[in-house]
Design goal:
Blueprint lengths: L19 H4 L4 E10 L9 E3 L3 H18 L3 H16 L6 H9 L4 E5 L5 E3 L5 E5 L12 H32 L6 H4 E3 L8 H12 L4 E2 L2 H11 L14 H7 L4 H11 L2 E7 L5 H11 L1 H6 L1 E7 L5 H6 L9 H14 L1 E3 L5 E3 L3 E5 L5 H13 L7 E5 L1 H4 L9 E10 L2 E4 L19 E4 L5 E4 L4 H6 L3 E5 L2 E2 L7 H8 L8
Parallel strand pairs: 6-7, 6-13, 8-9, 9-12, 12-13
Antiparallel strand pairs: 1-5, 1-14, 2-4, 3-5, 3-18, 10-11, 14-15, 16-17, 18-19
Length: 494
């Protein structure tokens, strides 16, 4: 990634960070900080999936810093730095440390982290960062603002996707002979609703740890560039949008369907079907095309895109008896194309047709749909859910209380335990203390050790993954390895 409008990566911070190097004690030579999810605004989530540090290291610590800082003329860097800080603060800030860093030629930092894909209990650090050169203790927390902005979205999406996946898996275990289809039941529709292409890519990586279905092309590129993917990562199908249907004309909607079936004689093709009258499509258009649909070697997927998701798919009980709206999409497809009964006693649509709903899907709505389908006797893997920004963007850094805080420093050759515990706070902002270790308890759960001894640090699950400008020998992980660690996808990425 290239930050075109950010020619000096040392300025990717909050303004108050500019003065901190001068505020630290003169004899401070080392600092250790940690990244932790401190709380959860989703009551049933007590663990957060750790993912995204490797992407940050690739994109920011290596590509951006090498291209926009270490490879540039130091005088150009300083000139831009002085220009921005003068406009911001009224006078330029001290740049001697930046000159020294540029002369060093690399970022003197070490990140020690848990393996990505680990489910980490709240208030247990996912990684720690400290400087490797005594002249750069000030540098550690200069990255707090940027890391806070860059890292939380991948972890938040991964955690939400895993929660959704486990719920869908539970329903599938009860109602389906093909529970592996859950790989495709959650489909990433969120790109257009994210804060940027970079945010969409970072979020999309989190989604791909739980599901194989995605329309987020940026996440596939990120997977290749930053996670060693080479081949299949996630998949999608040819699909229409409303412009395609509108261009064909309302009076010729059946012709558009027929043309698409001819254009795609095999495989899956998805057709948005509520541009005008969804119920007419299901009860009039599709019956006329039944022979052509059943003759295909593939599946026609009907995509409603408006209305209450549960009522559209499962039927609205407040509608008149026998009406299409009362029956819903799944029942109507079953009436037209037929179904079989699986070994668990649930109805399975004919494989030539299917349904996907992608408007405002949430965990609660997906749960309600699965409940209603099960009650009506349907395999709950029947519909695919397009998971968009309503789930993956209606969140913040505070959803899981992510924070990077310093816990230890060395000043004049002596270690100092750093911690905060505001009397005005509920306890959420209480920090860890001293040098940190993360150990496995007797119950197999990860636990935080404050004021860790050297022996505890040596045994810590936090291991160096990136040091002095490059990944350590065992620090780089592939997306396949990370997804396998999460352990819910059946079809793993390459």
């Amino acid at each position: 990634m290239t930050y075109t409008y950010f020619p000096n990566p040392a300025l990717l911070l909050d303004s108050y960070k500019l003065s901190h190097p001068d505020m630290f004690p003169a004899g401070m030579t080392h600092m250790q900080s940690n990244w932790t999810a401190r709380t959860s605004r989703i009551p049933d989530i007590t663990k957060v999936v750790f993912v995204g540090l490797q992407s940050f290291a690739n994109r920011i610590l290596m590509d951006l810093w090498n291209d926009a800082f270490f490879s540039q003329d130091i005088e150009d860097i300083i000139a831009w730095h002085d220009h921005i800080t003068t406009n911001l603060l009224g006078a330029p800030t001290n740049t001697d440390r930046l000159r020294e860093l540029h002369a060093l030629g690399y970022l003197p930092l070490v990140f020690s982290a848990l393996p990505e894909g680990t489910e980490v209990p709240l208030r247990v650090p996912m990684f720690i960062v400290e400087n490797t050169h005594p002249n750069f203790g000030w540098l550690v927390n200069q990255f707090e603002s940027l890391m806070s902005a860059e890292l939380w979205i991948s972890m938040t999406t991964a955690t939400q996707a895993l929660r959704l996946r486990r719920m869908l898996d539970e329903f599938a275990a009860e109602t389906s002979d093909t529970p592996e289809m859950v790989d495709w039941q959650g489909h990433d529709f969120s790109f257009r609703g994210m804060g940027s292409a970079e945010a969409a890519a970072s979020s999309g990586i989190g989604h791909l740890l739980a599901f194989a279905g995605t329309d987020s092309v940026p996440s596939l590129m990120l997977a290749e560039r930053c996670y060693g993917a080479n081949g299949f990562v996630g998949g999608s199908v040819p699909a229409t949008e409303h412009s395609v249907m509108c261009a064909g004309g309302q009076l010729s909607e059946i012709d558009t369907f027929e043309r698409l079936l001819t254009q795609y004689p095999t495989g899956i093709v998805s057709v948005v079907s509520d541009t005008w009258d969804l119920w007419s499509v299901l009860t009039e258009t599709l019956p006329l095309l039944k022979d052509k649909i059943m003759a295909r070697e593939g599946k026609l997927v009907i995509r409603p895109d408006s209305g209450d998701p549960s009522d559209i798919l499962c039927g609205n009980p407040s509608e008149p008896e026998g009406s299409p709206a009362r029956k819903g999409v799944i029942e109507l497809l079953g009436e037209v194309f037929g179904y079989t009964i699986n070994s668990k006693g649930y109805k399975v649509l004919d494989p030539h047709v299917g349904a996907i709903y992608g408007d405002s899907i949430t965990f609660d709505r997906a749960f309600d749909i699965c409940q209603r389908l099960r009650k009506a006797g349907w395999d709950t893997t029947t519909p695919v859910f397009g998971i968009g920004s309503f789930t993956y963007q209606y969140v913040t850094r505070d959803t899981f209380g992510f924070a990077m805080k310093a816990t230890w420093a060395e000043v004049d050759g002596e270690g100092r335990d750093l911690f905060k515990d505001p009397v005005t706070d509920s306890g959420v902002k209480k920090s860890a203390k001293g040098r940190l270790a993360v150990l496995y308890g007797d119950d197999g759960e990860l636990t935080l050790v404050n004021q860790a001894t050297p022996e505890q640090e040596a045994m810590s699950a936090l291991q160096p993954v990136w040091r002095d400008g490059q990944f350590t020998e065992d620090g780089f992980q592939t997306l396949a390895e990370i997804a396998a660690r999460v352990g819910v996808r059946k079809l793993l990425p390459s």
